[in-house]
Amino acid sequence: MALFHNDNTPMIDRYRWWEVIAIYAGIFVFLFFMLAPFIEGFLVSLKPLAELFSTPYSFWPENGSFDAYFTMWERVPGFAWYVFNSFLISTVATVIVLLLVVPAAYAFARFDFRGMGLVLGGFLAVSMFSGAVLLIPLFRLMRTLGMLNTYWAMIVPGAAFLIPSAIWLLRTYMMRIPTELNEAAYTDGASQFYTFRRVILPIASPGIIVVAIVTFIGAYSQQFIFALTFNSKTEYMPLPIGLYAFFGKQDVVWNELMAAAFVGIAPALVIIFFLQRYLVGGLTAGAVK
Amino acid sequence: MINSRSSLFFAWALLAPAIIYVLVIVAWPLVETFRLSFTDASLRKVTNYVGTANYEKIFNETFAGVIWRTFTWTFFSVALKMIIGTFGAVLLNAAVPGRHVFRILTMPPWIVPMAIGIFMWGWMYNGQFGMISGLLQRFGITDGPVAFLAYGHTAYWATIVTDVWIGVPMVTIYFLAAIQSIPKDLYEAAWADGASRWTRFRRITLPLMMPAVVTMSMLSLIATFNSFDIIWILTQGGPSGSTTTMIIDTYQTAIGSKKYGEGAARAVVICIFLSLFCLAYFRVTRKLQNMGGKE
Predict the structure, then answer these.
(1) pTM of the entire structure?
(2) Interface predicted TM-score (ipTM) over 0.90
């Protein structure tokens, strides 16, 4: 039975009606698991507190309103700062990672001297260790460098753990740039540095953009442990720690907390929407370490 | 020209900044963790070397329990990620309208700041007002409210489910890419021979995506072993230690109780396990490459 295909659909891709139902049912269950917390979170943000803390449980809000999205700013006046801090930390971390990774990835992609394989393995091994394992010496290092309770305490250690996948991703991209370009530049008398800056960098820029996006998302989504441990100043707190501000003395103001969460998520959702074409390729390539 | 002497210098000059950065921020702390594990470092000014006292102190039944819990927790989480990821990838690969939208809709748990997703799960697990307990009661599966995070057994599984939820999108998208790189003519030949959809999945898709499954489960193993945010936000290792994994245990000792030396000894044990995983990973990927599999 032809459901969603025309005469051009290859025979192999044609499904019987019950297969179509099974596929959609499966996708529905799968996506429900992926999105349930967001759906529930959004509905919670619409419910007044009294309705939220009432039994029996009701899925749909009865007196739903967007009030929480306005009152949250009064309860936690610094919230806009937390979002700003998150952006600032992620942006600076991304810049640091790019400055370190772009030259390194080029070296790994183009040269093959003794010991470089080992160094590459060393970089990849970094991603095996989480910040939590190295927390004690990192804490002392941050204290020695005077970075405790500053933005740097969240930026500097965070950036280190974003380096491995960025190097891998960009190296893979740069290996596809033909060596003939280097040779042509050499014949024309260009120096190594000139070739890197004027020939390679412009060609590699689409790859660099993908790495920048992936790194930024990584930095934005994983700010927790360093912010929790290395910073106690409210004015530098990023979004995830800032959400704790909605934990009152007795009760958590859940509807405003969820509203705040969605305000914090919005930038990430906008990024997904516009860059999903790059993201699927970039994120999976980053996973292939 | 590519391998001239000036190239050698240039290549290392390009690498130097990244190498120095990683040496200072990762390698040095690693060595320092090892050194601290033999001291009684704490908030006090004076630090003495105490030999293997820290290690002797931690090797007791509680710590053995923590190690065992970490391994079972990690195992269940990775296994579920692989199963659900395969399920999702096969479904999203089906040639039905809307599949591009469905693919985007799998991404949020991965892209959204982890802590935010975890807070939302925290509310869902709430016994009196949360969605899961509410729906279970509505459909008569449980008699009364279930406060998932208040009991050891349910908290253990609740943290696993949240960890799976965060890990599945990456696994799914990666498996989907692996499935899509399988040559189409294999399917067409099998189809021409009258193989059913299930047979094609069993005999073509599953064997050919196996290298991706192996690679991903190794990477996922390492990431899951290191999992901190989920457990810390949901339960902080409780109730009564039922979700205390090695990472949480280390954090509580080192940062919570300020026993840096003892915490470092625990971190060293974690590092030993991680290095073993890391070696296994490199060995497995090399084997897959030799077999002609993808990286």
Answers:
(1) 0.85
(2) no
